[in-house]
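Quick one:
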Amino acid sequence: MPAAIDVAIPRECIYRRFEGQPGPCPRCGGTLQSQYAHYMVTTWRGKRAADSFFIGNDAGWFCARCPTVVINPAEVSEYFSHSLPKWNVGDKFAVAGILDLDAIPEEKRNLPLGGDGNPIPLVKFTGISDETPLPPSETSAHERVAPAQDGRRFEEQYEDVLQNIEFGIVQVYRDHPHMTDWQALNAIEALLRSYQAEAKGIQPPPRPQDPLAQEVYGSVAAMCEWRLGRGTLWDKEGKPMETGPQPITLDEMVACLKRIRKSINRWTQRGGRQGYLSFVGQFIV
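Output:
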């Protein structure tokens, strides 16, 4: 029988739709296990905060290797399908974190949570923010304009684009094992500034001066142009590859590059000068 998960540990929450089991951990590949827990769910109506709710279920799948929990938003949505008239349920929601009920002193367990002297023992999720709430209804229609507003977590919605960008980075890293996260970050930030300048119709900034950063810039830029529908990729024999998938917008590309930048910074802090490259290199074939 798997060991009980310590809900007092802060975790990154990843939304993923699935039936049955979610598969391995999307961050480290470890085994996920389901465990009953109590969650705090916050809702919004437009940009205004609506009611927050406490729910208890086994929708969370916890990684035994890293601090990650995978939650199926469809299971959370079911709690809002039969709301009472007095409830102010917004049109978007986010699971804010887990309630660590064991942290409540025994003498206060008969008191309402959030009252005087009995604060809510919320262990906030690190990967979900107010800027990326989910729609309560599985049938809600959303335009693919603002990333992650169709009910899927950003990484899931743009998984293929993010992998293409990461592939461009890892290609250079494998040719130059001494390459560091800083050089990858330098290239991504320069490319991000270039696309932001294009969106504003202004002169693009200069490319990186570091030779390896320049190489990463060129490798990733080729991937980005291909995903934007205005570039061609070539195979090892010098032949053009087949037509790519449906092009994404410039705004979507900027959002993807920002997410890669965030990932590089996070894994560098955790693993040192090659923390990001070592981590992402495991998942790029």
